Amino acid sequence: MTSNGSPSSSRRMAVAVLNRFERDRSFPSILEHGSFGHHLSNRERAFAHLLTMGVLQNRTLLDWVLGPICNHPLTKLPVGILNTLRLGAFELLRLPDKPAPIIVNEYVSLARLEGHKGTASLVNAVLRKVARVRHKVAEPDPEVGFVEWLSIRCSHPRWLVERWTREFGEEDTVRLCETNNEPPAVCLRINPLKAGKHQVLQELEQIGMPFKESPYTENCLILNLANASDKSPRLGQLPGLAKGWYTVQDEAAQLVGLSTQPLEGQTVVDACSAPGGKTTHMASLMRNKGKVIAVDRNAGRLRTVHRNCDRLGVSIAEFHCGDFRDLARDFSSVADICLVDVPCSGTGVLRRKPDIRWQIGPQDIAELSSVQYQLLASAANVVRPGGSLVYSTCSMEREENHGVIELFLQRYANYRLAPAGMPPSTVTDEGYFWCLPHRHNTDGAFAARLTRKL
Asked: pTM of the predicted model, to two decimals?
């Protein structure tokens, strides 16, 4: 708490982010550019991020703890007060080294800003009760049934737990939900257009940033931010980023880029290119020789692709703004390779984006799979005979992955499934590339490589 009795800036920012999320389901941009953000130190911003992510990752469990303690239905509370309670409960239950009275007082002060004297008294009473049981909060009883138990324990929507249980079984679903609540790995992809691997390793060692090499791909480094030197720059301020020596990209996304297998001098189409990670990766694999056609329907996001190409030294990209379903006819049989990295539910990146679990529903899967098929079908005539069509998502859902490919192959007899060419542990019996967070410790990602018959 500050000297004038007001809550810390970190906690004020955290509740503002959560309130905004509840209002319009916007999360990451608020965290980066929130109204308190420009006043926060790196340490304060990191704490605000920890609090916000913690509530989103534990929301169902926090409400399960708070519900019986609070003498008002949680759904009837003002959003700002409910999020204040969630934040306070998260700190008390998940950050046990902090003194309970300090935490409670912080959120009582925050409740005065979010509500009035009465709501501040309610927050005080509820959080004091949580503080008394902070070291002995029971888990939900497994007798309530597997889906309900895991949904509460790991704070995942019931419909998603049901779905994954059918797909993966109970044991794997537990591991998957637990993994989604762990910190995600932060990975760099070395850019050989600007730097050699030795240069990058030397720089990271000099600035005190520990890392290990990926077991899956040669130019991927996994950073150990928790053990970085106090003098190490923040992730966004690593010197090699600005120089274009490397870019931040998860291992699974890097493997999708590698699965396209482009060669020097070829023409590649990236149908849904923003923000440009795979566009720039393919260009680097081609050693800046040939052509990469980057398409995206959003002009602002396409400008991001352009900026990333500039930063990473990609000189062979051309940019086209529009819906690929409309533009595909302009690229008939021009591509040796077409990558269709479709918009998807994002259920493979829940540990990186926990807000997604509260944004989507089962109806979204069906709607997305329809759009995904349309995008893939639009690419069918973009690839020349003998060329390759690569379809990818960051979804865990069969309808968005296997289902789209199976339907496509039924309707397009001039295509066949080609070998994935990926590490064996990431390839399914059917021949698809499929990374799973709980098995590979990467983001979830799916890819299928199809070849157009001659």
From this structure: 0.93
